[in-house]
Amino acid sequence: MEAEVHIAYREERKIGLDIETDDSGLLIGKRGKTLEALQLITNIAAGRMSNDSRRIIIDTEDYRSRRESSLVRFAQSAAEQVRRTGQPRLLEAMNPFERRLVHTALGDSKDVETVSEGDGLYK
């Protein structure tokens, strides 16, 4: 796979890398799992090689922003279904960042409660 990596931003606590490639689907993987794994490996390697404690965020084709918007819409749709049916709704297992997005998106709702269940990284 050929790719170009650009520093998208540098902040106090994180550095954003944007990868340009014709194989972005392969890089992203199913529900972003490959991109997430690459980011994890990159952060582990960077942590071992440098004293810089900033977190590295890897993205391609604005996937992360699109995924965030999609998750918020999905959470709002699930909440509307719960309101209509009065029945709880079980969502797919999510990583901590995605769970936080869902909890935040529905946090002001007075008639819907969000709860994370399970053990491990994905709940």
From TrEMBL:
Known CDD domains for this protein? Answer: KH-II_Jag (cd02414), R3H_jag (cd02644)
Q: Which residues form the R3H domain?
A: 65-123
A Pfam cross-reference name: R3H
Q: Residues of the signal sequence?
A: none
Under Gene3D superfamilies, the record lists:
3.30.300.20, R3H-like domain (3.30.1370.50)
The family database entries (PROSITE patterns) matched by this protein are listed as: R3H
Mention one GO molecular function. Answer: RNA binding
Q: What InterPro entries does this protein's entry cite? A: Jag_KH (IPR038008), KH_dom-like_a/b (IPR015946), KhpB (IPR039247), R3H_dom (IPR001374), R3H_dom_sf (IPR036867), R3H_KhpB (IPR034079)
What name does UniProt use for this protein?
A: R3H domain-containing protein
The organism is: marine sediment metagenome
